Amino acid sequence: xxxxxxxxxxxxxxxxxxxxxxxxxxxxxxxxxxxxxxxxxxxxxxxxxxxxxxxxxxxxxxxxxxxxxxxxxxxxxxxxxxxxxxxxxxxxxxxxxxxxxxxxxxxxxxxxxxxxxxxxxxxxxxxxxxxxxxxxxxxxxxxxxxxxxxxxxxxxxxxxxxxxxxxxxxxxxxxxxxxxxxxxxxxxxxxxxxxxxxxxxxxxxxxxxxxxxxxxxxxxxxxxxxxxxxxxxxxxxxxxxxxxxxxxxxxxxxxxxxxxxxxxxxxxxxxxxxxxxxxxxxxxxxxxxxxxxxxxxxxxxxxxxxxxxxxxxxxxxxxxxxxxxxxxxxxxxxxxxxxxxxxxxxxxxxxxxxxxxxxxxxxxxxxxxxxxxxxxxxxxxxxxxxxxxxxxxxxxxxxxxxxxxxxxxxxxxxxxxxxxxxxxxxxxxxxxxxxxxxxxxxxxxxxxxxxxxxxxxxxxxxxxxxxxxxxxxxxxxxxxxxxxxxxxxxxxxxxxxxxxxxxxxxxxxxxxxx
Length: 514
Prior knowledge:
This protein is 33% helix and 20% strand. By secondary structure, it is an alpha/beta fold.
């Protein structure tokens, strides 16, 4: 009670934004730690901050809802209340029982807890491999505690998979990547489709059996480890009776959206109450796209040039790297990933993409060659073996060609954003066909810019030729920004002048743009 009084005035001072009708926001919590010591993890929250957030929700009319209410609303039953929020706690750490659960009972808030089967099956007194870090089994809930929380009627017990909450070898270079979406690389070969799908099914089935054996109820919710899944895995989950799947994609979820693709905001670094309020109120527009094109097939010394490229990306801080997946040698095309459909130059594209994402913090979009668009099996091979967040393709939004590319890629790599590379400004009606978060990229020519309708300003990425004088590029970007354009890119790193272009292009100097 003292905590609630302590925050009362601040709670009332922070305004709230009404949710769109028929939608809800899901929040992903992990460790709930005490207030005395520094936080031990980027995903941890102090118990006092959690209490303040719960109080803020109550004071501002937000209504935590159960998984059952969401499923009912999705199936056409009772609608969700206004400003619905779903609370979830991942990993099954002891503090979900000792710290989070008492607060949930105090506020009478329903929530979901996601349990990793392999961690809970470790015997008392032994050690859990917690994402590569040893932790005593006593740091996690017991099954008796799980059953106690379940009996309260507030807690939905979900699976966080059995043994997929880990990285597995993903390429010859030794990168480890999320087990749920990665083809294991061992003894010089990758898992084939049948092996990969069987491994995922065995794991999810084992998790379901474990929870049912301990609680009497099979889990109907799957919280994907690291929020990573694909359509093939989602189909397996549905087959096993898991009707809901949680991701870590930001944003509200409409009740009509597929239950296997529920978005969640990841709560990190025990945010201030102001920061928490801003997250729920969606104060900020998404960061604009800032891009650079890379052609690793042209690198002579791959290790040295990858290292130098990562340093340049860290300095520039774009949020898209368009990466070419091939090289040309003596007029022949060679792949930078394993596929039976092209000769292999070197199996390095997944390593490059993973390093770019993890070390430089820049999502990779594969820059598809034009002639690949009708070769869906080649695109499927790319998605099997390479980590990426989107595709750049020369096709019209909504076209049959674009749709077949999406189907081929998202079976193994999901969700994907598409950037449609066009030479000229398309007809005005094309802009309305763009899916959420997709873009059209155009050369930043005067003719293209003059032909753009007003509604295109937030949906077009204007790409500059890096051979132009740096001062000219920077000046033009500033002018376009003043006119309301938000997305800019470079068709490669400039030979010089990055110190001039960087401050305009970089998100480091402009972290939030309207």
